[in-house]
Amino acid sequence: MIHRHNQKSCDLCGQKKFQVLYLLDGFQIIRCQRCGLVSTNLGLNRTDLEAMYAPSYYQERWEYYFGNSVINNTVTEENTNIRDFRRGLSLIEQFKDRGKLLDVGCALGIFLYLAKEQGWEVHGVDISRYAASYAREVLGFEVFAGNLEEAQFPEKSFDVITLWDVLEHFPNPSRQLQEIRRLLKDDGVIFMNTPNEEGLLRLLAHIIFRLSGGKITYPIRKLYHRFHLYYFTQRTLQALLEKNGFVLVRLDKSCIPIIKARGRPLERLIVKVLSWPELLCHREFELLAIARKRE
Fold it and tell me: What local confidence, expressed as pLDDT, does residue 4 receive?
């Protein structure tokens, strides 16, 4: 059973004083009063996480996970998900020559497939037994089912470690980044993307929520949910990286791919229309970061 964590400490600064931003369905969105890191008050254990990422999680997101040219040979055109993976890989290769790559939270192995195609030696890890099994049995990759620490990779094993839409899912991002730092070669890099807490869509949802006296909660509930445990700004993401022994070398922002905008056609249209204002006011939906180990 998923439960609330009433004695939670901030993962970034360690203090225990929080402001409640939103009361949602059985949990809260809270902000640290010292450093500003936004999170949920959910305390998730290993059993909770495995249950959350059961086969139904992937089937409900069929278009994102299965409706692409890697998994589904009836799809001939590359969707935005695949194109984003390719752009990310190209960005990584500006900082690191091809070598040994670990994708943390690799899901079904789509990014592993594209990276291997480009000449990388690829490995994966995912908490979902279903996803890890799919990546192994259908795509033929070496993928560990469980959390990163349980995989027990040797120290300084990888040239690149990637976290696609993963950092926000960790119950303890700092601990995971410390393990990632252990696994990364001294000249290695990490790549991650994560939702931008200062994005335009979140700002508009907040304004609607406040102007309605807290009565209109639908936009908030779409953007804040129990699968995402943390929400980072540019400042808190950089601070988290620095705290755990990394130096940020590049930070980009991008609009949400429509394939990730789950909902009715009207909702997806609204998201698409708002991508232009997002760009104009530099409040895009996602943060993309590349960092190196600090000496």
Answer: 52
Measure the CA–CA gap between 144 and 123, rounded to whole angstroms.
Answer: 8
Q: How far is CA 207 from the centre of its chain?
A: 25
pTM of the model: 0.94
Q: Which amino acid is at 219?
A: P
**3-state secondary structure at position 137:** helix
- The structure tokens listed for 180 are 């990632």
236-272, pLDDT tens digit by residue?
999 999 999 999 999 999 987 777 777 788 888 888 8
**Is 135 within 8 Å of 143 (Cβ atoms)?**
yes
- Cα separation, 130 vs 57, in Å, equals 10
CATH superfamily of 46-293: Vaccinia Virus protein VP39 (3.40.50.150)
User: Nearest CA to 127 among 44, 60, 207?
Assistant: 44
Q: Residue 210: count other Cβ atoms within 10 Å of its Cβ.
A: 10
Alpha helices in 77-199 (DSSP H): 80-92, 110-117, 129-137, 148-151, 173-183
